[in-house]
């Protein structure tokens, strides 16, 4: 077995790593994990299980994702890693000038202006078409059943549902948001833990997507309803925007970190931030995890990588620098030299040359999937298309209103995207999928779980349970309340503005599945900060 698979967790946990041989599904919601496992037992592969789980999560965890969101995936199958970019583009007729004419100097978080074309249904259809074994009608059946018959709301879900409801009730008072409240707060409040919530409209929409392999969403009855709702309320999204949506297969990008290849989706995703930080950190030696020196260097590296990401990353065709330039060893060395004993104020360099669900699946055939989808900022835009249950995302909120910025708002463009799936290989063989959801925490979570695994030998559950930190801006760093006080003090002594955060969900929610190359045994970990479950077979 790999050395990090057998070690017990040194942190307080509710469970140790989970082991299985035939298959595994790891998600933040038990019912979704079980749905994916049921598909494996019906003869589906890891790709089918990922689709089933993702669709199910739109029902059983609507606080984090929905049918109207985006998705990305890394798929290991047939001895190769494949990348899927299923993020949607901005409406063709939107522009900085049009948004300013509507009375906004900044892109709002809610309403029609930040709505981009949803990519998740296209992701499910494309994955099923290219690599799936079972028909989409069978794969989406668990999600359809839960939406139609209802399910008992889980504790963490109810907490964030209430938080979202309270915020929307206070701020979203226009009639355009009425359908959100009818759908997600039918009793004029968020459902409590253990209460049954259902969405028959959601079920009918999933059925339509299943029966048409996603076509109805982009070029059929669902597209017509979305476009009509947009037109009625002055939105920029049109039927033409939906019809022109395309899900793209892309070549994943990677860096080699101490003999392991760490893989991410290329921009417009922010996975490149995690890779650049690891590329900087591989020039240092780390002998102790719980040390001020280790945390200081990690924080400084992620600050430098984020400064570059926020200055240079957008859709690849609009970037000034190529991914290879940003991830070059030469550039990593120039950034590494900026790290001293004191906290720095990060600035972008010049290279030469977020509410989300994450899931991981694996099967006995060797297929493994790293999949992530989101509406962004919890429930997204606050808009639900009448009669469909479709909660629309607000990804356009990440565009810049500065016309000179690489990520400037423009029609038909993909924005800088926070959601990122990760994958680990060694010697061209799969180790497995990993991910940590949660807005701009995601690259930071990727860095921390990769180093916990490779540098410090922690098993999947321990790698996730370890106390986390999150760089926020400038020299401000939040740490979990169980983060060592002496470590927090040591970082403060080096100039970091350390703030203790009591809310554990602020630090992301992750899943990991590793495969032993000799035995094929799967080792999984799930997030202890939420209702996460590993379903083994």
From TrEMBL:
- Recorded metabolic or biological pathway in which this protein acts: Sulfur metabolism; glutathione metabolism
> What family does the Swiss-Prot or TrEMBL record give for this protein?
Belongs to the gamma-glutamyltransferase family.
Q: Which organism is it from?
A: Virgibacillus profundi
Q: EC number(s) of the enzyme? A: 2.3.2.2, 3.4.19.13
Q: Which InterPro entries does the entry mention?
A: GGT-like_enzyme (IPR052896), GGT_lsub (IPR043138), GGT_peptidase (IPR000101), GGT_ssub_C (IPR043137), Ntn_hydrolases_N (IPR029055)
List, in alphabetical order, the Gene Ontology terms for molecular function in this entry.
glutathione hydrolase activity; leukotriene C4 gamma-glutamyl transferase activity
Per UniProt, which keywords does this protein have?
A: Acyltransferase, Glutathione biosynthesis, Hydrolase, Transferase, Zymogen
Amino acids binding L-glutamate:
439
Q: Name one GO biological process term.
A: glutathione catabolic process
Query: What is known about its processing and modification?
Result: Cleaved by autocatalysis into a large and a small subunit.
Q: SUPFAM superfamilies, per this entry?
A: N-terminal nucleophile aminohydrolases (Ntn hydrolases)
Under the subunit heading, UniProt states: This enzyme consists of two polypeptide chains, which are synthesized in precursor form from a single polypeptide.
- Protein name per the record: Glutathione hydrolase proenzyme
Active-site residues?
A: 356 (nucleophile)
- Give the catalysed reaction(s), semicolon-separated: an S-substituted glutathione + H2O = an S-substituted L-cysteinylglycine + L-glutamate; an N-terminal (5-L-glutamyl)-[peptide] + an alpha-amino acid = 5-L-glutamyl amino acid + an N-terminal L-alpha-aminoacyl-[peptide]; glutathione + H2O = L-cysteinylglycine + L-glutamate
Q: Which Gene3D superfamilies match?
A: 1.10.246.130, 3.60.20.40
Gene name tied to this protein: ggt
């Amino acid at each position: 077995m790999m050395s990090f698979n057998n070690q017990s967790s040194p942190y307080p946990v509710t469970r140790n790593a989970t082991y299985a041989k035939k298959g595994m599904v790891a998600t933040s919601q038990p019912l979704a994990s079980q749905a994916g496992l049921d598909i494996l037992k019906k003869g589906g592969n890891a790709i089918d299980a990922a689709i089933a789980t993702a669709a199910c999560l739109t029902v059983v965890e609507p606080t984090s994702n929905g049918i109207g969101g985006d998705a990305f995936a890394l798929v290991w199958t047939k001895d190769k890693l494949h990348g899927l970019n299923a993020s949607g583009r901005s409406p063709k007729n939107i522009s900085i000038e049009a948004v300013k004419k509507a009375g906004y100097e900044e892109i709002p978080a809610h309403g029609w202006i930040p709505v981009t074309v949803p990519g998740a249904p296209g992701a499910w259809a494309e994955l099923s078409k290219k690599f799936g074994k079972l028909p989409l009608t069978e794969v989406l059946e668990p999600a359809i059943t839960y939406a139609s018959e209802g399910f008992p709301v889980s504790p963490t879900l109810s907490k964030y549902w209430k938080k979202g409801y309270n915020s929307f009730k206070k701020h979203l008072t226009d009639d355009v948001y009425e359908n959100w409240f009818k759908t997600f707060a039918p009793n004029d409040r968020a459902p409590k833990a253990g209460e049954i919530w259902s969405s028959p409209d959601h079920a009918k929409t999933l059925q339509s997507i299943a029966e048409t392999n996603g076509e109805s969403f982009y070029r059929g009855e669902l597209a017509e309803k979305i476009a009509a709702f947009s037109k009625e309320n002055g939105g920029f999204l049109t039927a033409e925007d939906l019809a022109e949506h395309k899900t793209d297969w892309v070549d994943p990008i990677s860096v080699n970190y101490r003999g392991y290849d760490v893989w991410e989706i290329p921009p417009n995703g922010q996975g490149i931030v995690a890779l650049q930080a690891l590329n900087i950190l591989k020039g240092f030696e780390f002998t102790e995890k719980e040390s001020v020196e280790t945390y200081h260097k990690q924080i400084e590296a992620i600050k430098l990588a984020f400064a570059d990401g926020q200055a240079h990353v957008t859709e690849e065709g609009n970037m000034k620098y190529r991914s290879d330039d940003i991830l070059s060893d030469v550039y990593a060395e120039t950034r590494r030299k900026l790290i001293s004993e004191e906290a720095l104020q990060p600035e972008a360099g010049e290279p030469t040359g977020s509410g989300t669900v994450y899931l991981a699946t694996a099967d006995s055939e060797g297929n493994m999937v790293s999949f992530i989808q989101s509406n962004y900022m919890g429930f997204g835009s606050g808009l639900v298309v009448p009669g469909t249950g479709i909660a629309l995302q607000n990804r356009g909120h990440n565009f810049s209103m500065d016309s000179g910025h690489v990520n400037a708002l423009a029609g038909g463009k993909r924005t800088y995207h926070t959601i990122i799936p990760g994958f680990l290989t060694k010697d061209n063989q799969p180790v497995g999928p990993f991910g940590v959801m949660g807005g701009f925490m995601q690259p930071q979570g990727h860095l921390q779980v990769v180093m916990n695994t490779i540098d410090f030998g922690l098993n999947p559950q321990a790698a996730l349970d370890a106390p986390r930190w999150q760089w926020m801006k400038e020299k401000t760093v939040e740490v979990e309340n169980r983060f060592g006080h002496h470590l927090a003090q040591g970082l403060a002594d080096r100039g970091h503005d350390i703030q203790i955060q009591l809310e554990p969900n602020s630090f992301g929610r992750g899943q990991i599945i590793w495969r032993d190359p000799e035995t094929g045994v799967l080792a999984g970990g799930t997030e202890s900060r939420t209702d996460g479950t590993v379903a083994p077979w």
